[in-house]
Amino acid sequence: AQSVTQLDSHVSVSEGTPVLLRCNYSSSYSPSLFWYVQHPNKGLQLLLKYTSAATLVKGINGFEAEFKKSETSFHLTKPSAHMSDAAEYFCVVRKVDDYKLSFGAGTTVTVRA
Amino acid sequence: DAGVTQSPTHLIKTRGQHVTLRCSPISGHKSVSWYQQVLGQGPQFIFQYYEKEERGRGNFPDRFSARQFPNYSSELNVNALLLGDSALYLCASRLTGGHREGNEQFFGPGTRLTVL
């Protein structure tokens, strides 16, 4: 079975400082990994995805994530946080030949002015 | 272009009642999936439909059912509502039911169901 663990339920950063959201995955097969963002009263938006190509994946809005197989991690980073980054972030895994997405519990990001 | 649309946006029901939630996929998308997101948790997979057939089901009781129509829109039905069914119900659409590159899921804004 596929699963993800988001290591921080809440992250608070100052505007302009780096953001790090940590995610470890468990998968019996080579997985596809995703990060989604959910703003209040909005649908889930795909930030980026890893599908066995480059291990460093660049996404929208300046976010990127690095797939580390040896550490079974897929941490999300952004060099400089913006107030609009305040939202809920989900790390998601999908088995390569499957359709079902398995979500982590989420990390709430707050950005201080 | 219209994204995935869901109706209603909010709904309040009482225990034991029945509810129907609706989803219209992105134009041209033939696969619809449903997810339940309880407050404070990540979404949980309920169903996937492709070409009007159920292609997958999550760990949910038989009180949950769904169907997909010829125009690829979908309904999620929940019978005998329980307090624990209170959640945000998300619909996602994909181009097809396969797994090839680019066939990602696009989510709607969800329907917030409150069971009293």
The profile of the biggest β sheet of chain A is: 6 strands, mixed
Assign the CATH topology of chain B: Immunoglobulin-like
How much of the residues of chain A is beta strand, in percent? over 45%
**Main β sheet profile of chain B:** 7 strands, mixed
Low-confidence parts of chain B: none
**What structural category arises from helix and sheet content of chain B?**
mainly beta
Average of pLDDT of chain B: 92
Radius of gyration of chain A: 13 Å
Instruction: Give the H and E element order of chain B.
Output: EEEEEEEEEEE
Q: Quaternary state, please?
A: heterodimer
Kindly identify the CATH topology of chain A: Immunoglobulin-like
Helix and strand content put the structural class of chain A at: mainly beta
CATH 4th-level superfamily of chain A: Immunoglobulins
What percent of residues of chain B adopt helix (DSSP H or I)?
Answer: under 10%
Terminal residue distance of chain A: 41 Å
Shape of chain B: globular
Q: What radius of gyration of chain B results from the CA coordinates?
A: 13 Å
Topology, element by element:
The complex is a heterodimer of chains A (113) and B (116).
Chain A: E1 3-6, E2 10-14, E3 19-21, E4 23-26, E5 31-38, E6 44-50, E7 56-58, E8 64-68, E9 73-78, E10 87-95, E11 102-103, E12 107-112
Parallel strand pairs in A: 2-12
Antiparallel strand pairs in A: 1-4, 3-9, 5-6, 5-10, 7-8, 8-9, 10-11, 10-12
Chain B: E1 5-7, E2 10-13, E3 19-24, E4 31-37, E5 44-50, E6 53-57, E7 64-68, E8 74-78, E9 87-94, E10 106-107, E11 111-115
Parallel strand pairs in B: 2-11
Antiparallel strand pairs in B: 1-3, 3-8, 4-5, 4-9, 5-6, 7-8, 9-10, 9-11
